[in-house]
Amino acid sequence: MAQEDVFKKIVSHCKEYGFVFPSSEIYDGLGAVYDYGQNGVELKNNIKQYWWKAMTMLHENIVGIDSAIFMHPTIWKASGHVDAFNDPLIDNRDSKKRYRADVLIEDQIAKYDEKIQKEVEKARKRFGDSFDEAKYMETSERVKETKEKRDNLHARYAEAMQGPDLEALKQIILDEEIVDPISGTKNWTDVRQFNLMFATEMGASADASMKVYLRPETAQGIFVNYLNVQKTGRMKIPFGIAQIGKAFRNEIVARQFIFRMREFEQMEMQFFVAPGTELEWFPKWKETRMKWHQALGFGAENYRFHDHEKLAHYANAATDIEFKMPFGFKEVEGIHSRTNFDLSQHEKFSGKSIKYFDPQTNESYTPYVIETSIGVDRMFLSIMCHAFEEEKLENGETRTVLKLPAALAPVKCAVMPLVKKDGLPEKAREIIDQLKFHFNCQYDEKDSIGKRYRRQDAIGTPYCVTVDHDTLTDGKVTLRFRDTMEQERVNISDLNSIIEDKVSIASLLKKLQ
Ligand code: ATP
What we know:
By secondary structure, this protein is an alpha+beta fold.
């Protein structure tokens, strides 16, 4: 099946099973805004818990905060967002659609990469075991020609984005003959800058009101509180501050479901270090974060680092962790060495000293910062994409199953009476009353057992417990495992110890040690 179709299925599965709904759906929705349903919110909360605990419980020197969404507007002047948090946009006059000029060009670069990849794969098949990829890349005329075009385009693009030079961006789009995917034409307007921050008014009277912004990232709330936390928590450098919260960006092109939203949630951690040590910490955080992702068990081949060649003016190293989505490898998390840019800017704009006094050296300095920044919603999407499976069974049937890591699954255990009579429902409720203090359980008595199992498979429930007539006399139930569909007869009194450890966030955290 084409990857596009797989993605469509995932989107409709998210809606059908109460994971994600379009916002304001009965009013025809609101562009790039989504609501999480009864299962979605559980999965999302589990992702957040996994991140929060990995940061604050596994690191003695990381603490959390929860800062407000509204902040003093000068913060956004200091951070550079008022002047420079822009995307270059371009319109197609025929389709009347708006695009990000940089994304159109990046897609074009990706097309060249795909073309090269296809050639390589063809050759691999042709030459079999004796295939030498490096040699082939050096010698194949076709590959060399495409690679040269790709590299030239990349170099022009990187140069145009410095500044950025809007005319140069448009010229690239014209020279590459990039067409609008909808109208198929090259009837483009000029490229313009578009600020992504949402603004609103704070204060009751028109005269006294102040323009404030909905924060486009959570990081600034950490920077402006850094000294409060350092002093009240008696934190010593190196130390980190973690935060989970909503962020808002007026994205020009909202694409790919919850991948790019206008209201989304971030999990950010700023790690404050002594100047000159930041490039030692940067690879450590790269490794720590990659381990966190891979502990979910989706396979190392689905992740990669994408180091930035073009760095923001305040950064001295940056990388993205990309995950293989059905629409290609995409950024899920950014790791940036942000130097002392933000803290210095806030010192300058606020006129207050926010230097750190190092008791060991008796020196004061503005700390440098390593940032790890991950989108909850993108993480959610990557998990959904990987967990969703339409599995062919031996009997020829297909079952739709979400192979979610057990610790992240919305419901951990469904308890089902075989029939709705003879005291079986009461026994099932009794079991739930025991287990519900430890993890999320669901009671289900409707339809055949087979149908009930399928319903739980579709929301990723790792365990199902069936109560039958024998249960009443032998105190045993049938425990069914989602992934293998195997069933085992176990004592009711053992259920908690069998299940709890496997579905706890602690089980994931232990893999990070
Ligand atoms: P992109 O290049 O995709 O716009 P970005 O580099 O601007 O992302 P950052 O500013 O580094 O993203 O934000 C950190 C993380 O926040 C991203 O890795 C992503 O997971 C998440 N994120 C950013 N923008 C959005 C959005 N519009 N919708 C959902 N998640 C987002």
